[in-house]
Amino acid sequence: MPVQLELDDIQGTVLRNRPMPYFGAYLLFRIDDAKQARTLLRRLLPYVTSAADWDRPVEDAWINVVLTFEGLRRLGLSETILAEFPVEFRQGMAARKVFLGDVGASDPEHWDMPHGANGFHVGLLVMAASDELRQQKLAVGHEALAGLGGVKLVGRVDVGVPPNLREHFGFADGISRPYIEGQGGAPLPGQGEPAKAGEFVLGYVNELGVVATGPGPEALWRNGTYLAIRKIHQDVAAFRKYLRDNADSPAGQEFVAAKMMGRWRSGCPLALAPEADDPELGRDSRRNNDFAYYGEDPDGRRTPVGSHIRRVNPRDALKESLTDARLHRLLRRGSSYGPMLPEGVLEDDGQDRGIILALVNANPGRQFEFVQSQWINDGDFVSEGSRTDPIAGRRDHSADYAFPARPVRRRLAGLLDFAVTRGGEHVFLPGIGGLRWLAGGGDLQT
């Protein structure tokens, strides 16, 4: 029987692709008064965007609302219900820093974005196709806060695509994503078999064959999910200098960058163009993700087994292993922040720039945290030992990277912290009915 997603009850960011160009903001608030926080939710409810028209939006702009574990506690959710949430959500990312590899320069002591343990309780996620639309959505939030002194803004990160329409390291972004059962339309070539809806939305069957559920009454969790939010600072100057120091020409630098990422910077995959970039292929959504690894590139001669895209989405490469890659899929929403470092500049200008990731997953433990700890920060699953992701991995375990090349295997030594965590939290994204339940008091205690 076909899956029917209740799109009008699912918050839009779960399915909506960001527009291009995009203009957005993450607004983080502290709750000091539960009743005023519920008033805020009631005021926002008419403006919260659903996924009902996600593929052909009437308005290419949206507001969505998330809550941290501490936010739900401060809202008045009973301790009985709170205790049933996943342990990763209850503890929060800062407390799980060692497991997640947020050590050294990425340690939470260096974070500049609030998290659940130091003031972030409720968040507004705004995305729009123009700055005018963004300002309109921000005005909605500002009006909803009027007179509510018990809810205070503690952080804001504005996001927007750089002038070259790429993320700060220069790569085209947002190419690969799973196709979800029931979302409508047809999958693009390369998306493979539809992912079970319960991997990304509570209330539906997941890849284990069971209905993904949440804590407390169904009215709270149905059509909700979790986001793993990560603020990642990108050291663009260090990345550029590393490429320069490990290649003897501009073309060689592009080749090294592609071998680290698994795609040329145009978005063209090495799997389909291993020797030279093909920007036209990179722009073609019906071709740029249509490839596999098993049987076609098992030893990574085209796409290195330790490259970034092959780590975060192994596709069919683990077919003969004990790991079922379908249990660890993520729906990735990434947005750049900060000014672009001008082309050719090799010295850091002191400006903060990077990417905000919002990773949709119904099971934070076996989805985001598994991918982060086992695939990004460990190489055992691809017989790479302690080697980590060359773009985003921790460097205290290993700082080298190797890939097949002619006439001999190429090894890159002295990898740096190109991507450093500057904030992170597991947040709950309720369905719109769940927001209504929370706003109305449900069986809250205060």
UniProtKB/TrEMBL annotation:
Chain spans, region Disordered: 273-307
**Keywords, sorted A to Z:** Iron, Metal-binding, Oxidoreductase, Peroxidase
Ranges for domain DyP dimeric alpha+beta barrel come to 9-138
Which cofactors must be present for this protein to function?
Answer: heme b
Q: Which residues form a coiled coil?
A: none
Gene Ontology cellular component terms for the protein in this record: cytosol
Q: Give residue spans, biased composition: Basic and acidic residues.
A: 280-289
Instruction: State if Lipid biosynthesis is listed as a keyword.
Output: no
Q: Keyword Chloroplast, does the record have it?
A: no
Which protein, by its recorded name, is this? Answer: Peroxidase
